[in-house]
Write a structure and sequence with these properties.
Layout (H helix, E strand, L loop, with lengths): L1 H8 L9 H13 L2 E2 L2 E2 L8 E4 L5 E3 L5 E3 L5 E5 L2 E5 L3 E2 L12 E2 L2 E2 L6 H18 L11
Antiparallel strand pairs: 1-10, 2-9, 3-6, 4-5, 6-7, 7-8
Helix pairs in contact: 2-3
Amino acid sequence: MMQFESVLLKGKPFPAYNPVAEVPFLFEIMTHVLSGAHDADRINGAVELYLATQKEEFPGLRGTPFHTYPGDVCGRDQEGIIFSTIAGADARTCARTDSRHVMYPVFGTPELPERVLWDDMEILIGYIKVLSPDARIETAVF
């Protein structure tokens, strides 16, 4: 519902400028499951998931400074924070219109049945295939 709030109440635009970013946006609206989009070629090393213990600033989308929140599930690579589930993606690794190797993280909660997430990820794959019919899923990590 946060996506509806962003568009309808806060006046933020639907990400129509970037089809790669439209995929997780539409996915979130349709499934109510949080997702993101990162250019995997801009990620440096392995992605580490961690629980933030304090506010940590990082460069967010469109040059806006973002920060993590205590208790927020976040991801970082060797160069720094790449996403906060609350604040969103960073400027460095966010998916762009020219991204060809995209990581779509999908976030669930402990009480969400695993089968629901797998079914929702099939919906995500369907959206990706519309955007890029020849797309391949290289890795699915649960």
